[in-house]
Design brief:
glycoprotein, signal, four-stranded antiparallel β-sheet, binds 2-acetamido-2-deoxy-beta-D-glucopyranose, six-stranded antiparallel β-sheet, palmitoyl-(protein) hydrolase activity, hydrolase activity, acting on glycosyl bonds
Length: 315
Amino acid sequence: MLLNIVSLLLLVVNVLNGAQWPIPYERVSSRPPNNPYCQPGLILFCPTGQAKDSMIFAQPSDTIEIFALKKPVWSFKFGDLMAKFKIMHDALGFRSQLTGKNWTMEWYELDQLFNCTFPHVLPNDTFIWCNQGALCVYEGIVDSMWNGSSDLSMLKKIGETSGVFYETWSIWSDPGTAATLYFDSYDCASFVIRSLNTLSQYGVQFYSDVRLNYTRLNIYSQEPELIGTYDYIIQHTNSSLKNDFIKFYRDFDSKKPTTEDWLKSLLQIYESFFIQKRFYFYYNDVYWYLRLKATPLEVTFDEISIGEIIQPKYA
Ligand SMILES: *[C@@H]1O[C@H](CO)[C@@H](O)[C@H](O)[C@H]1NC(C)=O
Ligand SMILES: *[C@@H]1O[C@H](CO)[C@@H](O)[C@H](O)[C@H]1NC(C)=O
Ligand SMILES: *[C@@H]1O[C@H](CO)[C@@H](O)[C@H](O)[C@H]1NC(C)=O
Ligand SMILES: *[C@@H]1O[C@H](CO)[C@@H](O)[C@H](O)[C@H]1NC(C)=O
Ligand SMILES: *[C@@H]1O[C@H](CO)[C@@H](O)[C@H](O)[C@H]1NC(C)=O
Ligand SMILES: *[C@@H]1O[C@H](CO)[C@@H](O)[C@H](O)[C@H]1NC(C)=O
Protein backbone atom coordinates (compact mmCIF):
# COMPACT_ATOMS: atom_id res chain seq x y z
CA MET A 1 0.00 0.00 0.00
CA LEU A 2 2.99 2.28 0.44
CA LEU A 3 3.35 4.72 -2.39
CA ASN A 4 6.65 4.23 -4.07
CA ILE A 5 8.88 7.15 -4.90
CA VAL A 6 7.78 7.23 -8.54
CA SER A 7 4.13 7.71 -7.76
CA LEU A 8 5.07 10.16 -5.03
CA LEU A 9 6.98 12.21 -7.58
CA LEU A 10 4.01 12.08 -9.94
CA LEU A 11 1.84 13.31 -7.12
CA VAL A 12 4.28 16.13 -6.39
CA VAL A 13 4.22 17.18 -10.04
CA ASN A 14 0.44 17.14 -9.98
CA VAL A 15 0.35 19.30 -6.90
CA LEU A 16 2.83 21.78 -8.31
CA ASN A 17 0.74 22.07 -11.45
CA GLY A 18 -2.25 23.03 -9.37
CA ALA A 19 -3.87 20.29 -7.38
CA GLN A 20 -7.20 18.83 -8.24
CA TRP A 21 -9.08 19.24 -4.98
CA PRO A 22 -10.41 17.30 -3.28
CA ILE A 23 -7.78 14.59 -3.38
CA PRO A 24 -9.68 11.38 -4.17
CA TYR A 25 -9.93 8.88 -1.38
CA GLU A 26 -7.84 5.88 -2.36
CA ARG A 27 -9.60 2.51 -2.48
CA VAL A 28 -7.63 -0.60 -1.65
CA SER A 29 -8.16 -3.90 -3.44
CA SER A 30 -7.97 -5.94 -0.27
CA ARG A 31 -8.03 -5.30 3.44
CA PRO A 32 -4.56 -5.46 5.03
CA PRO A 33 -4.38 -7.49 8.25
CA ASN A 34 -4.86 -5.36 11.34
CA ASN A 35 -1.59 -5.03 13.28
CA PRO A 36 -1.86 -7.19 16.43
CA TYR A 37 -0.56 -4.15 18.34
CA CYS A 38 -3.91 -2.49 17.62
CA GLN A 39 -6.56 -3.29 20.21
CA PRO A 40 -10.12 -2.07 20.56
CA GLY A 41 -9.95 -1.53 24.32
CA LEU A 42 -13.27 -0.88 26.01
CA ILE A 43 -15.76 -1.84 23.30
CA LEU A 44 -15.14 -4.65 20.88
CA PHE A 45 -15.68 -4.09 17.21
CA CYS A 46 -18.92 -5.64 16.01
CA PRO A 47 -19.33 -8.28 18.72
CA THR A 48 -22.68 -9.61 17.45
CA GLY A 49 -22.05 -8.90 13.82
CA GLN A 50 -22.50 -11.22 10.92
CA ALA A 51 -19.60 -12.91 9.18
CA LYS A 52 -17.33 -10.94 6.90
CA ASP A 53 -18.91 -10.06 3.56
CA SER A 54 -22.37 -11.19 4.63
CA MET A 55 -25.33 -9.09 3.61
CA ILE A 56 -29.00 -8.82 4.26
CA PHE A 57 -31.14 -10.78 1.82
CA ALA A 58 -34.84 -10.27 1.32
CA GLN A 59 -37.58 -11.97 -0.64
CA PRO A 60 -38.45 -10.25 -3.92
CA SER A 61 -42.01 -9.80 -2.66
CA ASP A 62 -40.85 -8.05 0.51
CA THR A 63 -40.86 -4.34 1.24
CA ILE A 64 -37.88 -3.08 3.21
CA GLU A 65 -38.22 0.04 5.31
CA ILE A 66 -35.13 2.14 5.85
CA PHE A 67 -34.34 4.10 9.01
CA ALA A 68 -31.86 6.88 9.71
CA LEU A 69 -30.21 6.19 13.09
CA LYS A 70 -28.27 8.76 15.04
CA LYS A 71 -26.88 8.86 18.57
CA PRO A 72 -24.25 10.89 20.40
CA VAL A 73 -20.74 9.45 20.06
CA TRP A 74 -19.71 7.46 23.17
CA SER A 75 -23.26 7.61 24.51
CA PHE A 76 -22.59 4.32 26.33
CA LYS A 77 -20.16 6.27 28.48
CA PHE A 78 -21.18 9.92 28.44
CA GLY A 79 -24.91 9.73 27.71
CA ASP A 80 -26.01 12.78 25.76
CA LEU A 81 -22.92 14.88 26.46
CA MET A 82 -21.39 14.68 22.98
CA ALA A 83 -24.69 15.83 21.46
CA LYS A 84 -23.94 19.25 23.01
CA PHE A 85 -20.89 19.37 20.74
CA LYS A 86 -22.95 17.91 17.89
CA ILE A 87 -20.64 14.94 17.62
CA MET A 88 -23.02 12.25 16.48
CA HIS A 89 -22.66 8.71 15.23
CA ASP A 90 -24.77 7.66 12.26
CA ALA A 91 -26.04 4.33 11.06
CA LEU A 92 -28.77 2.79 8.96
CA GLY A 93 -31.60 0.48 9.98
CA PHE A 94 -33.62 -1.87 7.81
CA ARG A 95 -36.92 -3.64 8.54
CA SER A 96 -38.66 -6.34 6.58
CA GLN A 97 -42.41 -5.85 6.35
CA LEU A 98 -42.81 -9.53 5.53
CA THR A 99 -41.05 -10.95 8.58
CA GLY A 100 -40.85 -7.97 10.91
CA LYS A 101 -37.14 -8.68 11.34
CA ASN A 102 -34.80 -5.72 11.46
CA TRP A 103 -31.07 -5.03 11.15
CA THR A 104 -28.55 -2.33 11.93
CA MET A 105 -25.72 -1.42 9.61
CA GLU A 106 -22.94 0.87 10.77
CA TRP A 107 -19.45 1.71 9.67
CA TYR A 108 -16.95 2.45 12.39
CA GLU A 109 -13.40 2.11 13.69
CA LEU A 110 -11.92 -1.29 14.55
CA ASP A 111 -9.82 0.20 17.36
CA GLN A 112 -11.63 3.35 18.49
CA LEU A 113 -11.67 6.88 17.21
CA PHE A 114 -8.50 8.20 18.83
CA ASN A 115 -6.42 5.37 17.49
CA CYS A 116 -7.75 6.15 14.03
CA THR A 117 -7.02 9.83 14.23
CA PHE A 118 -3.41 9.73 15.42
CA PRO A 119 -0.75 7.03 15.14
CA HIS A 120 1.14 5.40 17.97
CA VAL A 121 4.71 6.70 18.10
CA LEU A 122 7.16 4.05 19.34
CA PRO A 123 10.26 5.03 21.36
CA ASN A 124 12.41 4.68 18.19
CA ASP A 125 10.10 7.11 16.31
CA THR A 126 8.38 4.51 14.12
CA PHE A 127 4.62 4.90 13.73
CA ILE A 128 1.88 2.34 14.02
CA TRP A 129 -1.48 3.38 12.61
CA CYS A 130 -4.52 1.59 14.00
CA ASN A 131 -6.84 3.28 11.56
CA GLN A 132 -8.99 0.69 9.93
CA GLY A 133 -12.74 1.05 9.72
CA ALA A 134 -15.23 -1.53 8.57
CA LEU A 135 -18.88 -2.25 8.12
CA CYS A 136 -20.75 -4.01 10.90
CA VAL A 137 -24.10 -5.61 10.12
CA TYR A 138 -26.12 -7.18 12.90
CA GLU A 139 -29.60 -8.39 13.50
CA GLY A 140 -31.89 -6.16 15.49
CA ILE A 141 -32.32 -2.44 16.07
CA VAL A 142 -32.08 -1.50 19.72
CA ASP A 143 -34.61 1.31 19.68
CA SER A 144 -33.57 2.78 23.02
CA MET A 145 -29.99 3.24 21.81
CA TRP A 146 -31.05 5.58 19.00
CA ASN A 147 -34.23 7.00 20.41
CA GLY A 148 -32.37 8.62 23.29
CA SER A 149 -33.24 11.81 25.09
CA SER A 150 -30.89 14.08 23.14
CA ASP A 151 -32.67 16.29 20.60
CA LEU A 152 -30.27 15.17 17.93
CA SER A 153 -30.79 11.44 18.43
CA MET A 154 -32.87 9.82 15.77
CA LEU A 155 -34.75 6.68 14.88
CA LYS A 156 -36.74 7.76 11.89
CA LYS A 157 -38.18 5.96 8.91
CA ILE A 158 -36.87 7.68 5.80
CA GLY A 159 -37.84 5.47 2.90
CA GLU A 160 -38.61 2.06 1.56
CA THR A 161 -37.94 -0.25 -1.33
CA SER A 162 -39.55 -3.36 -2.68
CA GLY A 163 -38.16 -6.19 -4.75
CA VAL A 164 -34.66 -7.56 -4.97
CA PHE A 165 -32.40 -6.14 -2.33
CA TYR A 166 -28.93 -7.59 -2.13
CA GLU A 167 -26.55 -4.70 -2.01
CA THR A 168 -23.00 -4.76 -3.17
CA TRP A 169 -21.72 -1.99 -0.97
CA SER A 170 -18.36 -0.93 -2.21
CA ILE A 171 -17.83 1.10 0.95
CA TRP A 172 -15.32 -1.20 2.54
CA SER A 173 -12.00 0.33 3.04
CA ASP A 174 -9.77 2.38 5.31
CA PRO A 175 -11.19 5.17 7.41
CA GLY A 176 -10.34 8.80 6.90
CA THR A 177 -10.09 11.69 9.29
CA ALA A 178 -11.56 15.18 9.29
CA ALA A 179 -12.91 16.74 6.17
CA THR A 180 -12.23 19.95 4.37
CA LEU A 181 -12.64 21.14 0.83
CA TYR A 182 -9.28 19.52 0.12
CA PHE A 183 -10.00 16.07 1.47
CA ASP A 184 -13.36 14.52 2.05
CA SER A 185 -13.94 12.53 5.21
CA TYR A 186 -14.70 8.86 5.23
CA ASP A 187 -16.46 8.32 8.51
CA CYS A 188 -19.73 6.91 9.74
CA ALA A 189 -21.73 9.86 8.40
CA SER A 190 -20.20 9.79 4.94
CA PHE A 191 -20.78 6.04 4.89
CA VAL A 192 -24.46 6.65 5.50
CA ILE A 193 -24.64 9.34 2.83
CA ARG A 194 -22.93 7.15 0.24
CA SER A 195 -25.14 4.22 1.18
CA LEU A 196 -28.32 6.22 0.78
CA ASN A 197 -27.05 7.31 -2.60
CA THR A 198 -26.43 3.68 -3.60
CA LEU A 199 -29.85 2.67 -2.31
CA SER A 200 -31.49 5.33 -4.42
CA GLN A 201 -29.78 3.83 -7.46
CA TYR A 202 -31.43 0.52 -6.54
CA GLY A 203 -34.79 2.23 -6.64
CA VAL A 204 -35.40 3.14 -3.01
CA GLN A 205 -38.17 5.71 -2.58
CA PHE A 206 -37.24 8.34 0.00
CA TYR A 207 -39.80 10.52 1.70
CA SER A 208 -39.23 13.97 0.35
CA ASP A 209 -39.89 15.69 3.69
CA VAL A 210 -37.07 13.85 5.49
CA ARG A 211 -34.57 16.20 7.11
CA LEU A 212 -31.15 14.83 8.00
CA ASN A 213 -28.24 16.72 9.54
CA TYR A 214 -24.74 15.28 9.56
CA THR A 215 -21.73 15.99 11.74
CA ARG A 216 -18.54 17.18 10.11
CA LEU A 217 -15.27 17.95 11.82
CA ASN A 218 -13.86 20.73 9.68
CA ILE A 219 -10.26 21.87 9.65
CA TYR A 220 -9.67 25.20 7.98
CA SER A 221 -6.27 25.48 6.36
CA GLN A 222 -4.34 27.25 3.67
CA GLU A 223 -3.61 25.14 0.62
CA PRO A 224 -2.07 21.88 1.92
CA GLU A 225 1.56 21.15 1.06
CA LEU A 226 2.45 17.57 0.25
CA ILE A 227 5.44 16.35 2.25
CA GLY A 228 5.44 12.64 1.47
CA THR A 229 5.37 9.19 3.00
CA TYR A 230 6.75 8.46 6.46
CA ASP A 231 9.87 6.90 4.93
CA TYR A 232 10.37 9.86 2.63
CA ILE A 233 10.09 12.33 5.51
CA ILE A 234 12.51 10.37 7.70
CA GLN A 235 15.08 9.90 4.93
CA HIS A 236 14.85 13.02 2.78
CA THR A 237 13.61 16.06 4.68
CA ASN A 238 15.70 18.43 6.76
CA SER A 239 16.02 17.76 10.47
CA SER A 240 13.83 20.65 11.62
CA LEU A 241 10.88 19.42 9.57
CA LYS A 242 11.52 15.82 10.54
CA ASN A 243 11.78 16.61 14.25
CA ASP A 244 8.68 18.77 14.22
CA PHE A 245 6.77 16.02 12.43
CA ILE A 246 7.74 13.40 15.03
CA LYS A 247 7.11 15.82 17.89
CA PHE A 248 3.67 16.67 16.56
CA TYR A 249 2.55 13.05 16.54
CA ARG A 250 4.30 12.25 19.82
CA ASP A 251 2.35 15.09 21.46
CA PHE A 252 -0.94 13.69 20.27
CA ASP A 253 0.06 10.13 21.13
CA SER A 254 0.82 11.20 24.69
CA LYS A 255 -2.73 12.51 24.90
CA LYS A 256 -4.14 9.18 23.91
CA PRO A 257 -6.68 8.52 26.54
CA THR A 258 -6.90 5.86 29.11
CA THR A 259 -10.52 4.84 29.41
CA GLU A 260 -11.27 7.50 32.02
CA ASP A 261 -9.66 10.40 30.19
CA TRP A 262 -11.37 10.54 26.83
CA LEU A 263 -13.03 13.87 27.21
CA LYS A 264 -10.02 15.56 28.76
CA SER A 265 -7.86 14.39 25.88
CA LEU A 266 -10.36 15.62 23.38
CA LEU A 267 -10.30 19.09 24.91
CA GLN A 268 -6.50 19.10 24.93
CA ILE A 269 -6.42 18.15 21.29
CA TYR A 270 -8.94 20.85 20.50
CA GLU A 271 -6.83 23.38 22.35
CA SER A 272 -3.63 22.42 20.60
CA PHE A 273 -5.26 23.23 17.28
CA PHE A 274 -5.83 26.78 18.41
CA ILE A 275 -2.37 27.26 19.86
CA GLN A 276 -0.13 25.46 17.39
CA LYS A 277 -1.98 26.40 14.20
CA ARG A 278 -0.25 23.70 12.24
CA PHE A 279 -1.23 20.19 11.42
CA TYR A 280 0.37 17.19 9.77
CA PHE A 281 -2.46 15.51 7.96
CA TYR A 282 -2.39 11.84 6.93
CA TYR A 283 -4.36 10.70 3.89
CA ASN A 284 -3.88 7.85 1.42
CA ASP A 285 -0.63 6.94 3.17
CA VAL A 286 1.08 10.31 2.63
CA TYR A 287 1.42 13.33 4.92
CA TRP A 288 0.42 16.90 4.16
CA TYR A 289 1.45 20.04 6.00
CA LEU A 290 -1.45 22.33 6.88
CA ARG A 291 -1.10 25.97 7.93
CA LEU A 292 -4.29 26.51 9.87
CA LYS A 293 -6.54 29.53 9.58
CA ALA A 294 -7.54 31.85 12.41
CA THR A 295 -10.45 29.52 13.15
CA PRO A 296 -8.71 26.21 12.69
CA LEU A 297 -11.41 23.79 13.72
CA GLU A 298 -15.17 23.70 13.70
CA VAL A 299 -17.80 21.08 14.24
CA THR A 300 -20.78 21.57 11.97
CA PHE A 301 -24.09 19.80 11.95
CA ASP A 302 -25.75 20.81 8.73
CA GLU A 303 -28.73 19.62 6.85
CA ILE A 304 -28.08 17.60 3.73
CA SER A 305 -31.31 17.30 1.79
CA ILE A 306 -32.43 13.97 0.39
CA GLY A 307 -32.21 15.51 -3.09
CA GLU A 308 -28.56 16.38 -2.54
CA ILE A 309 -27.74 12.98 -1.03
CA ILE A 310 -28.95 11.08 -4.07
CA GLN A 311 -26.93 13.17 -6.52
CA PRO A 312 -24.20 11.35 -8.47
CA LYS A 313 -21.35 13.09 -6.64
CA TYR A 314 -21.79 10.71 -3.70
CA ALA A 315 -21.78 7.58 -5.86
C1 LIG B 1 -7.10 2.17 21.23
O1 LIG B 1 -7.94 2.96 22.04
C2 LIG B 1 -8.50 2.34 23.16
C3 LIG B 1 -9.40 3.32 23.87
O2 LIG B 1 -8.95 4.63 23.78
C4 LIG B 1 -7.42 1.78 24.05
O3 LIG B 1 -7.98 1.10 25.16
C5 LIG B 1 -6.56 0.82 23.24
O4 LIG B 1 -5.53 0.30 24.02
C6 LIG B 1 -6.02 1.54 22.03
N1 LIG B 1 -5.20 0.68 21.21
C7 LIG B 1 -3.91 0.81 21.17
C8 LIG B 1 -3.17 -0.10 20.25
O5 LIG B 1 -3.33 1.64 21.80
C1 LIG C 1 11.29 0.26 16.27
O1 LIG C 1 10.81 -0.49 17.38
C2 LIG C 1 9.89 -1.51 17.06
C3 LIG C 1 9.33 -2.10 18.34
O2 LIG C 1 10.35 -2.36 19.25
C4 LIG C 1 10.58 -2.56 16.16
O3 LIG C 1 9.66 -3.58 15.82
C5 LIG C 1 11.05 -1.87 14.90
O4 LIG C 1 11.77 -2.80 14.08
C6 LIG C 1 11.96 -0.69 15.23
N1 LIG C 1 12.22 0.03 13.98
C7 LIG C 1 13.39 0.58 13.70
C8 LIG C 1 13.49 1.27 12.37
O5 LIG C 1 14.34 0.50 14.46
C1 LIG D 1 -36.45 -4.09 15.81
O1 LIG D 1 -36.71 -5.38 16.31
C2 LIG D 1 -36.74 -5.44 17.73
C3 LIG D 1 -36.88 -6.91 18.13
O2 LIG D 1 -37.99 -7.48 17.51
C4 LIG D 1 -37.87 -4.57 18.26
O3 LIG D 1 -37.85 -4.56 19.66
C5 LIG D 1 -37.67 -3.15 17.76
O4 LIG D 1 -38.76 -2.34 18.14
C6 LIG D 1 -37.53 -3.11 16.25
N1 LIG D 1 -37.19 -1.74 15.86
C7 LIG D 1 -37.63 -1.20 14.72
C8 LIG D 1 -37.23 0.24 14.47
O5 LIG D 1 -38.28 -1.80 13.90
C1 LIG E 1 -38.93 7.16 19.07
O1 LIG E 1 -39.27 8.34 19.76
C2 LIG E 1 -40.28 9.10 19.10
C3 LIG E 1 -40.41 10.40 19.87
O2 LIG E 1 -40.39 10.18 21.24
C4 LIG E 1 -41.58 8.30 19.06
O3 LIG E 1 -42.57 9.04 18.40
C5 LIG E 1 -41.32 7.01 18.29
O4 LIG E 1 -42.46 6.18 18.31
C6 LIG E 1 -40.15 6.24 18.90
N1 LIG E 1 -39.84 5.15 18.02
C7 LIG E 1 -39.67 3.90 18.46
C8 LIG E 1 -39.41 2.88 17.40
O5 LIG E 1 -39.69 3.63 19.64
C1 LIG F 1 13.17 22.54 6.11
O1 LIG F 1 12.19 22.18 5.12
C2 LIG F 1 11.01 22.95 5.19
C3 LIG F 1 10.03 22.36 4.20
O2 LIG F 1 10.57 22.21 2.92
C4 LIG F 1 11.31 24.42 4.93
O3 LIG F 1 10.12 25.18 4.99
C5 LIG F 1 12.30 24.91 5.98
O4 LIG F 1 12.65 26.23 5.70
C6 LIG F 1 13.53 24.00 6.00
N1 LIG F 1 14.34 24.40 7.16
C7 LIG F 1 15.66 24.52 7.11
C8 LIG F 1 16.32 24.87 8.39
O5 LIG F 1 16.28 24.32 6.07
C1 LIG G 1 -29.78 21.26 10.69
O1 LIG G 1 -29.23 22.01 9.62
C2 LIG G 1 -29.93 23.22 9.33
C3 LIG G 1 -29.34 23.79 8.07
O2 LIG G 1 -27.93 23.81 8.10
C4 LIG G 1 -29.86 24.14 10.53
O3 LIG G 1 -30.58 25.33 10.27
C5 LIG G 1 -30.47 23.42 11.74
O4 LIG G 1 -30.33 24.22 12.88
C6 LIG G 1 -29.76 22.09 11.95
N1 LIG G 1 -30.41 21.37 13.02
C7 LIG G 1 -29.77 21.09 14.16
C8 LIG G 1 -30.56 20.30 15.15
O5 LIG G 1 -28.64 21.45 14.40
